[in-house]
Protein 1
Amino acid sequence: MRALIVDDSRAMRRIVGRILTERGFETAEAADGQEAIAVLESMDDLPAVACIDWNMPVMDGLELVTAIRARPEWRDITLMMVTTESEQDRIVRALAAGAHEYLIKPFTPDALVEKLDLLGLVPTPGGVA
Amino acid sequence: MSIGADAFGFVRDHVRAESAIVLETGKEYLVESRLLPLARQTGHDSVDTFVAELRRTRNPALMRQVVEALTTNETSFFRDSDPFVALRQDVLPTLAKERPGRSLRVWAAACSSGQEPYSIAMTTRDTPEVAGWKIDIVATDLSEEVLAKARKGEYSQLEVNRGLPVTTLVKHFQRSGINWRINPDLAAMVQFRQLNLMRPFGPVGRFDVVFLRNVLIYFDLATKRDILRRVRQVMAPDGYLFLGAAEMTMGVDDAWERVPAGRSSVYRIREDQRSCVR
Ligand SMILES: C[S@@+](CC[C@H](N)C(=O)[O-])C[C@H]1O[C@@H](n2cnc3c(N)ncnc32)[C@H](O)[C@@H]1O
């Protein structure tokens, strides 16, 4: 199973990447929304999940969610916001735009794993991506 | 006699790896006092020799119990998720057919800081079969400290991040400063009070559903047996009991039978035992 990590912080991409890799995901990364779209367009095997930061240069996370939702060929990608934005109306906006889950930073590795479980995203060990 | 630095280091590393809970230096006394009952149960008279054996054998059940013993108030919303799926898909719809009075009583018998009873409350709201019913949840714990937090119904970002689907969060909670507070309509369903499971329960009434999760694990066999027997006496004969994932009635109190529900199982009083509780 693949996962795409979209965050302008390299440190954050590494942290999320490590948790996902340990869970058995193959990960790809992008530093902003526009790069994420380019990465998705270049992939033969789409990711099962994208973890998306909100505040990023060029194209932010909310715009990215909206852009992904506008492409029917990407409708199977589960979208999870992973962000410090914690106001209730922000969360509601992200959900309305098409995000499925929302994880507020800071979080523990367990919390991310539990969200993946909630979403039914459990890679089969040894299975093909 | 206090726990050696070596033993403490081993326990600290293991607990951190398994639970993300950090036992800093200075918590030796806590570790000692929490692990002593477990050490005694396994035939040791000191925590040091118990830990030495553990390091050698790495007995998985004991390794887990060590974590449990040191995380006594550990809880989360929709903990293990499966029980709540079973409640919504199986238990509540079945009970709904059996209760013409359209009311249900639920007991969360070791409710810690309240995540469990509030998760039950949210689940009943999401179950169309009991929409509009009168649902009373009695939530009890030994510790006044956790009960105070539970009554407040306020949880940190880290706490709501764990186990709570975000759609549920925005539906049932309101921001309160940097925390999240459970909505008043859900809070009104839950009544918190102090109760020690080791003592007689007193006049608690009769329950249709009992959550007794992740608490029996701390007691010895005789106590577990006694608690399960007394729980039977306060349950509706056709009621349902939920235990923790590592707990069971088998070999403890065989008046119960395990029945599949959703992806997990629940316990019911065996048919031939029901007359005794009427
Ligand atoms: C690990 S928590 C479990 C909380 C919740 N049931 C769950 O599964 O997430 C165990 C709780 O049992 C409570 N407890 C321990 N001994 C008890 C007793 N004798 N009577 C009532 N509660 C007790 C503790 O205070 C603690 O809050």
Protein 2
Amino acid sequence: MPEGILCNKTPVDTVEQLQALLADKSGKQYYEEMKLLDVDTPALWATIQKSLKSRLRTWLEICARCGMCADSCFFYLANDRDPTQVPSYKIQSTLGDMVRRKGKVDNAFMHYAMDTAWSRCTCCNRCGMYCPFGIDMGVMFSYLRGLLFSQGFVPWELKIGSGMHRIYRAQMDVTTDDWVETCGWMCEEYEEDWPGLEFPVDKPNADIIYTVNAREVKHYPEDLAEAAILFHLAGENWTVPSEGWEETSLAMFAGDWVGCKKQVESVYAAMERLKPKRMVVTECGHAYRATVIEGPYWAGLKTGQTPVESFHYVEWVAEALRTGKLKIDPAKRIKEPVTYQDSCNYIRNAGLRECAREIMSYIAEDFREMRPCGEHNFCCGGGGGLNGIGRYREQRNVGLKVKRDQILATGAKLVVSPCHNCWDAIRDLEEIYHIGIRWSFLKPLLLKMVIVPEHLRPEE
Amino acid sequence: MFKKILFATSASPVCDNAAKVAFDLELKWDARLIVFHVLGIPTHGFSPFVTDVRTGEREQVDPDYVDWVKEEMRNTYADLLKDTENVTLEAAVGVPHREILRKARDEDVDMIVMGAHTRPEDIGASRFRNVVGSTMQKVAKGARCPVVIISRPCTTCWKLFSNIVVGIDLSKASGAAFLWAARLAREVDANLHIFHAVDLAGTEVGQIKSQEEIEAHIATVRGKIENLYLPQLKGYEKVTVMVREGVPYVEILKQARERQADLIVMAHHTREIDPEQALLGSTVEQVVLRSACPVASVNRLDKTVDTSA
Amino acid sequence: MYEFVTGPLAWIAFSVFFFGLIWRFVWYIRGLNWQLDRVSYGHHTGYGVKGAARSIVSWLIPYGTHSWRFYSGFTLLVFVFHIGIIITPIFLLGHNLLLEERWGFRLPALPDPVADTLTVAMMIAALFIMLRRIALPEVRILTTFYDIALLLIVVTPFFTGFLAYHQIGDYSFWLIAHILSGEIMLIAVPLTKLSHALLFFLSRAQIGMDYGIKRGGMKSQGLPW
Ligand code: SF4
Ligand code: SF4
Ligand code: SF4
């Protein structure tokens, strides 16, 4: 059978396809069909020839096979230094072989490549910092994911995820109505506590356009309310777009570049439409990576910049604290030892290390760095979509060990984690390894310690 | 008064007592009852897994799973469902308090009934305190309609209530609690006991007040109640007013005992205690944990006055 | 034989070496694609140049990066090996005399003992690099025959040159072997992954620009390599 009903080379573009996939519990039938899925080798080779340019070819070719990338990969460390987890080995045995064989690979090879690309690499890009040639396996695995996606070899959850973006321009089935309605709801629920609280939708020319992660809308709208309250306290002139509010991109995890483009274009269109001064995105790492760092390239913006200047939430918080828009009550600062999870996506790959440090200096009295930290921090263990793939649960859980040990070594019981994915991974690691830690986004912490200006307090 | 009721259940024995009341209300008040169960707590980041609220296990949700949970609910409440006609069973995935609030809002219900979901039994609370805190507390805080929490078997049918204690603290929210209690009292012809506790711990911290001061304070409060609240009763006679000093939750429980209360009504104070940090929880939670009768939490004016008339 | 290896073959070897590298250079630059690589090379040039320079310089300095410091022993081997390979042949007295004789110019020459030390150190480093390849499982799994062959191709000219210069064994045999293996090495540079002699700089510049322009260079002091 060349193409399955569920597992095939066609991306999900209709609600019917999406429903059919969703109805297949844990992707059982999907993965069965995948075992029979044919590889379209001429197409694969044609794609490789078109898109594999000198940078990646050079990386594949000149790799000195020196193994200096080995210890940089948390998977290698977490798996007791298993040599097959050496980044160079992982990429050479997949993408490397695929190129050497001129795309003439079979179904078993594609399975191996898929399992490697999604369960043995989170695209955290740490290895690239440790290779003398700057060979970045994260970048290459991301490229490989694109090839695999085009051939239909993609984990079930990510096929669905990318379909969601294609259909709803969001990672979940949240419609424009749902979203606008949720904004109103949150405003209603919190306005008594915060007089004058607003949730402006589609206000033109605001200073800030705020964009979010669909999971906040669907399951955790408090997060939206908290953001609104903090903007309100800081006296910001802000808004959210009714369309183009979703910043995340499961399509990026899936390697669905067409889906990626569609997704970010919806956000950029909102920027063009509402003409805000700048954009702020919620506490999500890959969302920022997708829409701000990589997005302009998918959308074909030659300068590599988003239409308006874009900021991660930690940048906004650091600025608000620095300029005194938000003031912290010194008595309420975090007294206990606390550490910070540096997300690969906005720290290593977007240079925001200092923002995080600055924030911690305002809110914590006993801030403890993980070792290593900043740009050199290890991935939480759940990046690149891995958190959400049932097929690779085991591999993910093993990978969490590195972060567990890093956190334990700090002695801190509280982990600040302004990234949805890292947050989940840390929650899961507590669930699995029971090390007695708590973890939090920034917003709830800030809300507890910020000084509410006299005129914004509710009258009793 | 109750046309549409949302019974939020964890579909476990904790909610059995609440179930009886909810189904009873459906019967006696001719209300529409929505039995609603939130079956899984999702993750923050991308993941299809949810944590099953009852077992704490990881599950992947699909339509079959939801159907299966509904079937379970049908079995659980088979007895109660027997002689009902206006009941729907529904299940959803999400964070329990959030989905309950969403449902209540979508359906514009007149009242939410739920079990105590006390911390030890509430998997959501103990396993994921960072995520949910206490479901009940959050529902009580966020709901626009009254929330009735039932932790012990309720012996009296609502129609036969004869004593309702309403705890007030002169805030806007407790004004709403008062109005709702008054409406209910009038409807079932019960005694309304207005009660206020002067919180010694909560007022000026560290200052020990003299007995005279306390008494003077009590007198002022009493005066306020008489001026502000009693006129709103528009002549309803079966009312008492009582002001005492002490820890609010202890005093209100004592009062409920003395009056053989069938229902305690109070406002859930949003800024009272930070729900994440308070180990003992808010006054409402304290009262719920210990009260022999149902406790209604009312914070907002919605649903407190009869709009149908 | 001597005539041949120092005449036509030398011409061929040097031509392949230089033109090969020029071709590599052109091929690499032309293959850069702002959209596929997702780096806007043509914009924010200041950040790009800064990023590229930091990326190259940090890695050229022994122990200049986290990685070099992490693998401190191997780093020593790498630098000794590469310094030996580059410095010795260029500044060797014998080579410069030849240069003067043929082309009429010469570079400053290394004193013999220094050249000898560099050569020996380089060969010892090569030996340990080879042993490391076999000993460490994480490197063994990466190693192919190709890697070992390249190491031999690089070490042979030094080994033969050393023997010839110190007149150990048959001088003229070792001399010809030396010249021949040197030429093989020159030819191999552009044709094999020894091309990293050039591509190291290009690849480092590229990732430096990547970080400098796109991945945070505009919002931080630059990536601490
Ligand atoms: S560090 Fe770089 S050159 Fe060395 S094996 Fe890893 S990828 Fe290859
Ligand atoms: S990108 Fe990260 S996870 Fe992937 S191979 Fe490199 S270090 Fe390992
Ligand atoms: S989940 Fe967090 S730590 Fe992991 S790759 Fe993503 S940003 Fe990095």
Protein 3
Amino acid sequence: MANTAALKGINGLREIRRSPASHLAQAMETGSVPGTVVLKEGPFQTMAGVRVDPNSEESARIASVAGGLPARCGEVSGKEGVSVLWLGPSEFLVVAPEEAHDSLGGDLIGSLTAALGDAPGQVVDLSANRTTFELSGPRARAVLEKGCALDLHPRSFTPGTAVSTEVGNIPVALLKTGEESFRLFPRASFADYLGRWLLDAMREFASPEVP
Amino acid sequence: MLLISCPNCGSRDETEFHYGGQAHVSYPENPNELNDREWAEYLFYRDNTKGTFAERWLHSTGCRQWFNMLRDTVTYDIQAVYPMGAPRPSTAVPAAAEAGTASVAADSTTTGTTAPGTSATSTSPGTTKSGITAPEGATK
Ligand SMILES: [Zn+2]
């Protein structure tokens, strides 16, 4: 994603930051079929990996900063602008807009670290660990179903849930953001592969349906 | 493809998991007292059971948690899934209970990301297929 926000990074580094699938931006635009299925890379996010015992005092402190911690697989908690994904019984991914990062005037990482304090656990800045793909449209589910074995039917995969699974044989966190929209979180090194995989899976929807 | 019921996530494809070898191999009480042969047996010697086998699995692309599983090495039937540290459950599990185990675990995730429909449809071909191929591999 190109630099959209007028954010001042430390030492001007924000201006030269380049997202892992930025080289596919043009391909994703031409590969998208408006009204059917659209793929684009999402804007930079601030992400923090949190490991904490969910039954502890420190987890209650972290929950109050993050807007709750999800209790089980699939759940997403959070508050305005912050989502907390369940990755494991004691592992969570906190996702917030880029400007929540401490180097850009926010305080997400710092306040999570302070909430953990000296207690056992960890808060790690993972903002550069993953990128996000936004896949939306009436055929978005059909695209994902080519490479994801989970039941993505709306009766079981509802908006506001997220799972850590495999799409196109690589590990991703898959968040359902709306009835027909999904956000995929692949690791940065998989961004090129997953971007091209999704584009390939979308290709058939650019042609008229064969009856 | 096996369909494995993760205790945290419900039924998932086998490709999301890593195999961890034989379960219940306990660390020696006093490693210093072992002779070389006993130490080598602790490190490297494992059962090669034909039939029900207790083994460890890791849900590596899901919740990244370890668990134990009772699996038949011939038919690939998964007879029980139980937590690390728990004793091996009784092996007197009727074969028909296998599908029941899977669906119970799937239902235990309230998220519904693993619908009973999926587990039912993908279990049958998986079981059938592995049932055909397993005996051949087991004799190698
Ligand atoms: Zn799991």
Protein 4
Amino acid sequence: MSEIVNMPMAKALNAGLRAALAADEKVLLMGEDIGPLGGVFRITEGLQAEFGPRRVQDTPLAESGIVGTAIGLAMRGYRPVCEIQFDGFIYPAFDQIVSQLAKQTNRHGGTLSMPVVIRVPYGGHIGAVEHHQESPEAYFAHTAGLRVVSPSTPNDAYWMIQEAIQSNDPVLFFEPKSRYWPKGEVNLTESQLGLHQSRVAREGTDVTLIGHGAMVSTLLQAAEVAAGEGISAEVVDLRSISPIDYGPLLDSARKTGRVVVAQEAPENASVGSEIAATLAEKAFYSLEAPVLRVSGFDTPFPAAKLEGLYLPDADRVLDAVDRALAY
Amino acid sequence: MTLHTEQAPEPVRFLSADGTFAPTPAAEPFLARLDSLTDAHHERFYRDMVSVRAFDREATNLQRQGEMALFPPSEGQEGAQVGSAHAARPQDHIFPSYREHVVGMIRGVDPVNILSLMRGVTLGGWDPTDPKNGNFHLYTLVLGSQTLHATGYAMGQLFDGASGTGNVETDEATIVYFGDGSTSEGDVSEALVFAASHQTPQVFFLQNNQWAISVPVSVQSRTPLYLRGAGFGLPSVQIDGNDVLASYAVTSQFLDEARVGQGPRFIEAMTYRMGAHTTSDDPTKYRTNEERAEWGQRDPIVRFEAYLRARGASESLFTSAAEDAKDLCADVRARTLALEAPDFPTMFEHVYSEEHPRMREQSDWLTRYEASMTEDNR
Ligand SMILES: Cc1ncc(C[n+]2csc(CCOP(=O)(O)OP(=O)(O)O)c2C)c(N)n1
Ligand SMILES: [Mg+2]
């Protein structure tokens, strides 16, 4: 019998981290304000009290320092899990991530592994000031040597964080912060999918909607509205951004012939662009319409009062669905 | 070899916590700076501190009432900020972090512009190229980044010959504000390297308010932080940041030394963030009431008020300062509530210096889309 518990993603992540800390004493959490405060989103709440200040560390305030020392700790056999406080504050660590972390295993000819996880609360919908609502996943998906994932449900968060920590490669773990608090069912007994598998979140036959992170709930909302209009939309949750598990995407595209890819991130050179190109290459003869993208605009993430216009919502997705169906 | 693991000797301080004038030995070299201060200056210092404390509370309330995304209060740090802001000369450039509201106000920035950033209607708020804003540059939320910008700006002042002529009335200098937590960011160390290398006309003004959100300064440094500046070769001092006179005297002397060509300087102002880090923060999770109460005993406004009273300031100063602060708050509240979301096309403006095809395309698309949505809803 599986134990099923209803909890928000924030608690599921906390539980997943706790399980990982308990399972392997080499697992360390490091980040800004993750100790007594429990992180600004309270994801690590109580963990320092439980595992001590060495296993759950408030680091000096330096992102490059956090990731750079995590690399050294990994060389020494630790499995660091770094928290970057907000999406927009990952860039001071960019060099350490893309030039160092991503490349160590390759440069060592496979003799050294880099089991480092970097947790990043990301995305909009929280009405915050600049640098607090960005979606920078494409930069990392663009870099060889990094695995990039993003859960959309509490259940996925619970399992994927543990699987990411078990990975011997660096994993960028993007947490959709607007989804931290809605509750969902978590199966505490067994994981249904691997870290890098995509998942059909809703079945349908007329059009395929693809997204990751917080966008998945927007897509499900759009699918619900579409159903009311007699349109059957299938929703695929990517879960993994690098590598992308194209099997379910291609199956769905071949079934419906129409695809909309949605993301909060700006469109230019984005994950959505990559998916559109790949589906066009691999499912060309099954497509009835070009793969359409719905994205954030190619501007800086705007002031909070404009975020509702910047971020794709169900209406923008449905607008693309209409356009896809019009072909 | 000396290991500087303990607290520094007595910092530069003129006013003891009870307001008596009792300069510490470290303050002696800066004493002469107080000579030029008149009663009018003192009044202004006092009024500014009182105003910003009221502003701070008003802004916090506005945030609590859902009228702002966020607000970082500066309560407790008024002495450090008001003293240093008045030390800058009109030609100086100021690079703040995000908590120096009163510095901006002293330089001429409308406080409502500061709140417009926090209300989420703009990503900037004021125009530092407009002389009315007193060369007060935009807030920078990515910690430490602005220290490098300030250093680069000061390099420009140097390369232009706008500083170093020996005339304090016209030579330019730059001052940059940052926090104790931010000193750990690589950018801050790099800024100190460049400043020392170029001998920029610049003052690094570190407000050590003891906390970086929930992390105490002991996690950032085991030595007093003013030694960080010294380690890079900058003349560096620690001051009592809750003594507005110490902040004024040391900053004005350091800025003048820097502007006439003696190179960059470093100030560590010891102070305390009395409020939450921002309105999203809950300090009860990580610090004690005793600690806060202890710093409350060293309040910069109470201290300066006691000093002014002992000097015979008239009661009307204190009552009118309080009234003016109230008026300021009423005005700020009314105008903040009137700040509307900008029209969306502004999102696509000024992303590039020239017309850009992608901005045009997406702006046009959104215009059409929005129009079609309103039609649908009819
Ligand atoms: C590069 C970067 N990392 C993290 C943050 C999140 N953050 C905002 S303020 C803050 C603490 C800053 O402390 P300090 O420098 O002492 O300044 P104070 O807030 O105390 O004035 C943190 C961690 C940030 N803004 N930028
Ligand atoms: Mg601080």
